[in-house]
Amino acid sequence: MRDGLELIPLYSSSGGNSTLIKCNGSCFLIDCGKNCKQTEAALMSVGVLPDDIECIFVTHGHGDHIAGVDVFVRKHHSAVLATSVTHRKMREIATKENPASKYITIEENEIVTLDCAAEVMALPTPHDISGSVVYKIKNLITGKTVAVMTDLGTFNPAMEGFSKGVDAILIESNYDPVMLRTGPYPYPLQKRISGGRGHISNDECARQVKRLYDSGTRKFILGHLSPNNNTDEKALACTTDYMLQFGIKAGRDFELRTARKTGPTEGFSV
Ligand SMILES: [Zn+2]
Ligand SMILES: [Zn+2]
């Protein structure tokens, strides 16, 4: 698609996250949290050459979002945009100097305009590493918007305002509370995940999907599912059942799917 805006998850889970955004013929990524080879393979399988990735917007310094950034940009010369704290974190784990790529700082609440007539907005999140942001992308030609919102900690009023009325969203549905409580994780880690600076549960996600639906959003991808504390079935059922209480049916009134953990998921065009 030359004109328009597309959101395509390349892989999404606590084991690695990357989302491809296509806007008016240009391609960029949000995060690159598996290695370069896996990211290249995911891109090729959706028909995009890795060399065509103009830039990578990085949300925060956790490994499942930055693991592949350094090697990918050294090989493909994409620019990297992140908050100064996240840039520092990436420099710490970089193996070599990289003079070929551009490193651009995008601070919390800043808006960057790309040559492809895309506006990218960064919103800070209360996640448990400083410098964490989520991104919303607006096609300046059509006015359509998409957002990638994971690693949220909690869905606060600023995030509600930020995501209001987006045309499509990849939203975190990280854990099933019962699986987390009864699963293999030690208690302190359970507290970290479910605390206000960790991740949001299927139930919190379902409530946000309803709010977003009320604001006009109709295309949802549930992402960043925990491989240990969630299943696709539980995440989907939680949101579908919650929406049904209001007479709103997935597949009829809105589109809903989960993002695959290891490969691309059918995306949304808006
Ligand atoms: Zn993460
Ligand atoms: Zn994180």
Topology diagram in text:
Elements (H helix, E strand, L loop, with lengths): L4 E9 L2 E8 L2 E5 L5 H10 L7 E5 L5 H4 L2 H8 L2 E4 L1 H10 L9 E3 L5 E4 L3 E7 L8 E7 L5 E5 L7 H7 L4 E5 L4 H6 L4 H8 L7 H13 L4 E5 L8 H13 L10 E4 L9 E2 L1
Parallel strand pairs: 3-4, 4-5, 5-6, 10-11, 11-12, 12-13
Antiparallel strand pairs: 1-2, 1-14, 2-3, 7-8, 8-9, 9-10
Helix pairs in contact: 1-3, 8-9
The protein binds zinc ion (ZN) (2 copies).
The site of one zinc ion has 7 residues, from helix 2.
Question: Can you put this structure into words, describing what you see?
Answer:
The chain is of the alpha/beta class. It has a single domain, classed as Metallo-beta-lactamase, Chain A (4-Layer Sandwich). It is built from nine helices and 14 strands. The strands form two sheets. A seven-stranded mixed β-sheet has the order 6-5-4-3-2-1-14. The protein has a seven-stranded mixed β-sheet with strand order 7-8-9-10-11-12-13. Helix 1 packs across helix 3 and helix 8 crosses helix 9. It is globular. The structure holds zinc ion (ZN) (2 copies). The site of one zinc ion has 4 residues, from loops. One zinc ion binds next to loops.
